[in-house]
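Re-run requested by the PI after the first attempt was lost when the workstation crashed. Everything re-entered from the original request form. Ligand of interest: flavin-adenine dinucleotide.
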Amino acid sequence: MDMPPRAAASAPIFDPRAFRLTPFEAELTARAREFGERVLAPRAARWDREASFPTDNYRDMHAEGWLGICIPAGEGGLGAGFRAYCLAAAEFGRFCGATALTWNMHVCSTLWTGALTDDLDLGEARASHLARRGLHYARILNDDAVYSQPFSEGGAAAAGTVAFGTTARRVPGGFVVTGKKIFASLAGHADFYGILCTELAEGQEKGSRRDTLYLAIPKDAPGVEVQGEWDPLGMRGTVSRNLIFRDVFVPEDAALMPPGVYFQAASRWPHMFMTLTPTYMGLAQAACDFTVRYLRGELPGMPPVKRRMYPTKQIAVAEMRITLEQTKALWFQAISEAGPDPSKEQLLRALAAQHTVMENANALAAKAVRTCGGQSMLKSLALERIYRDSRCGSLMLPWTAELCVDRLGRECLYERGETDD
Ligand SMILES: Cc1cc2nc3c(=O)[nH]c(=O)nc-3n(C[C@H](O)[C@H](O)[C@H](O)COP(=O)(O)OP(=O)(O)OC[C@H]3O[C@@H](n4cnc5c(N)ncnc54)[C@H](O)[C@@H]3O)c2cc1C
């Protein structure tokens, strides 16, 4: 007997032919999808239930090369650029939001110091930067080192409006770091915390955003402490506790970027802040995948009851598909035009894409629950977790959904320097 046709277990989010992916992107995303289904999906419920860090996933990600995805190929990594990484990370996010989001924090320490910094003006600092990043890359590739990205402090610094309150003072051989970071995903689990802080000269009390330093602090350095509880609504496996730095000494080679380069990157390569979106693009796809399988009566662990014949379900699925296609199209365009010195149009599109992905991921998850019905929100099924995880995207600084709207409204109506006075 012929098996009835099934919806594909997991077709690519971005079909390589339709979206004209490069052969490298097509292969990378296929591998990411296979890894997500095989390794990430079966374990995702556990990290969520326990609010525990997905250590087993990181062991397997290291073994299969994923920790070096954005380390340049000439330096031993997979050599993915911004777009290739985003596409692969969306496939991870589809199967485990917390793993994809924490992986993003790690990957940024290589993408920002690698492909992104290659586009910036480093002058004479380039040679020393290349030597230093080689040290960090070797730790990742050879020693299984994981980096995190704790920037948030609970004030306006992570939004990019004032200098970071965490400070670094130069001392012989390195820096002494003092401060506090909140919501530090991978706290207690990363080997290095890639923090942003403000460099202060001798006697200086207040610094400028131009003096932002990007430093990798070893997790066991004297003066580093992980603090606080972690029992949140969603993204529970990120273990985003607080970090305290009390006069922590780090050597010169802890600098992930030369002085002044982070400020240049944030000004000239603003798409760097879109790296939080792939996780949520994946969650948006996951909410739609779940709904189709559920209504077709094909969800593993559920009785094979079909609900697809009801016109209201069909309308809801059609509306979800329209939202998903709109989200994918805008996001794909924005990640395709990421690069140094974007035009104003490109920057506004990136903000619109960020807002769209973060808001639509949760809107799709909410609609999936309503459409599938009461049984779909049981904790034994993935949708309940997708719904909670997807709620977190709009909250991520510096491009929260609110801040995207603020900037879009202002910059659509005002050219640089214009006022109403
Ligand atoms: C699951 C999860 C993981 C995270 N992981 C990390 C991580 O690894 N590293 C990291 O650095 N951060 C991380 N964050 C933190 C995140 O990026 C934000 O910093 C955090 O959600 C801000 O929370 P808050 O309440 O302190 O925000 P607040 O600073 O109090 O802001 C609240 C809201 O007000 C708005 N707002 C803020 N500043 C301004 C402004 N200047 N003008 C207008 N409106 C403004 C924003 O919309 C913001 O959402 C994570 C957050 C979550 C939820």
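Saved to the shared folder this time. The chain has three domains: 23-145, 157-257, 269-413.
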